[in-house]
Amino acid sequence: MLWIRKHRPYSIGIDMGDDSVKLVQLEAKDKVVGLVYGGSKRRPADIKAGTVEWQRWAIEAIREIIANGKFKGREVMATMPASEVFVEVMKMPKSKELKVEQAILSKIKSKLPVLPENTMLKYIPTEEDNVIVLATEREKIDRHLAIYEKASLQIKSIGVWPTTLTNTYASFFGRRKSDLESVVFLIDTESNCTNVVISRHKNLLFVRSIPIGKKQFGDENMITRLNLELAACKRQFNSMYRKATIERLIFLSGQAVDKEVCMGIAKQLEIPAQIGDCLAAVEIKDPLESGIERRGCDFSWAIAFGLSLTR
């Protein structure tokens, strides 16, 4: 496939997870999306996530990936790790005295890990009078902003991981006209968690992060527990959205998760399924110079890709 002369690079997407940092930059080409460059670093086992030592490691890791890579520009899109984001799906609260955000805070404040005044909250109205609430500590956001500033990057925005997953889905696996109204069950498995998004194309309907990931897949009991948790997500969704029917299950982790595990999940949920490999969905001009090893890749790149695609 020919590359057009004038490429349009997107921002660099940074997926700062609990156990690794992943950077990727995509580029608009003639009706397709191409990979500019990608790079990753694993967090050393002796450094605890969220500590001052972790912050120093993250700064140096990002600097090293940028220095050794072929990225274009220093503008980045980032997101908070799922473990640092409180998520709740509920009915939109009704109150004549309180504003919407105040009414939501009043309903969830007992569940928040910190005081409401130290929390940054985002709420997303969905269908059938439901709402998705995402909240995180202001201190943690400031900590992430400091990392990018000290790494000499220009932070464009810090988004939320569920919308980055719908970006990846819509850009690569939901491009048919019929997909615009289809409800899909998206699963992205990281090392220590499995992130769930149910959406109508890009419109979020249900969100949850389950603290069971690839590192726990060596234990059959943990896989069984994950299947039960995913089935519970489906039941909760069905109880909240009477007019919506899930049509497809898409594993956005691609080849990073064993197919047998994916097949077991699909059987448990009883939903037609497919592997959504975003690395296979982009044009790679020179695989040897891309910074990402596709064969044997044990990382999920879905969040990083979705961040780079964000405008």
Quick recap:
With 311 residues, this protein is of the alpha/beta class. The protein has eight helices and 13 strands. It has a five-stranded mixed beta sheet. A five-stranded mixed beta sheet has the order 11-10-9-12-13, with helices on both faces.
Task: Give a description of the structure.
This protein has 311 residues and is α/β, with parallel strands linked by helices. The protein folds into two domains: 8-83 and 138-309, Nucleotidyltransferase, domain 5, CATH 3.30.420.40; 85-135. It is 31% helix and 29% strand. The protein has eight helices and 13 strands. It has helices spanning 52-68, 100-108, 138-150, 161-172, 220-240, 259-269, 278-281, 302-309; strands at residues 8-16, 20-28, 33-42, 75-79, 86-91, 119-125, 130-137, 154-159, 183-189, 194-200, 203-210, 246-251, 273-275. The strands form three sheets. A five-stranded mixed β-sheet has the order 3-2-1-4-8. Strands 11-10-9-12-13 form a five-stranded mixed β-sheet, with helices on both faces. Strand 9 and strand 10 form a beta hairpin.
